[in-house]
Automatic annotation (TrEMBL):
<comment type="similarity">
    <text>Belongs to the COX16 family.</text>
</comment>
<dbReference type="InterPro" id="IPR020164">
    <property type="entry name" value="Cyt_c_Oxase_assmbl_COX16"/>
</dbReference>
<feature type="region of interest" description="Disordered">
    <location>
        <begin position="85"/>
        <end position="104"/>
    </location>
</feature>
<dbReference type="GO" id="GO:0033617">
    <property type="term" value="P:mitochondrial respiratory chain complex IV assembly"/>
</dbReference>
<protein>
    <recommendedName>
        <fullName>Cytochrome c oxidase assembly protein COX16 homolog, mitochondrial</fullName>
    </recommendedName>
</protein>
<dbReference type="Pfam" id="PF14138">
    <property type="entry name" value="COX16"/>
</dbReference>
<keyword id="KW-0999">Mitochondrion inner membrane</keyword>
<keyword id="KW-0472">Membrane</keyword>
<dbReference type="GO" id="GO:0005743">
    <property type="term" value="C:mitochondrial inner membrane"/>
</dbReference>
<keyword id="KW-0812">Transmembrane</keyword>
<keyword id="KW-0496">Mitochondrion</keyword>
<feature type="compositionally biased region" description="Basic and acidic residues">
    <location>
        <begin position="85"/>
        <end position="94"/>
    </location>
</feature>
<keyword id="KW-1133">Transmembrane helix</keyword>
Amino acid sequence: MSFSDKLKHYSKRKSFKYGVPFLIMMVAGSFGLQQFSNLRYQYSKKQPVTPDEMKKYGVSMKKRQEVTLETEYDKVKTVNIDEWENKRGPRPWEEEGLSSPAKH
């Protein structure tokens, strides 16, 4: 029997037809997951940004004592939720002068 005859013989079997692609997917999937896991662990070791580094890039950060749940809640309490207006943002495909929605 030649190689092509053996291949035809085995390709008719269900174990070859479904088992080989399954095993290939399992092996390829493990290599793919390995790459994603490496990315995850590579970036999880990064340290948080310090306020000094942020000042160097022009971003001002508040001190941790200034921002608490209570202070943010007090800010939200002052917002008037009964009188508000829904404002539609501009779409990239629209002209800049349009501020109201298109009427049909």
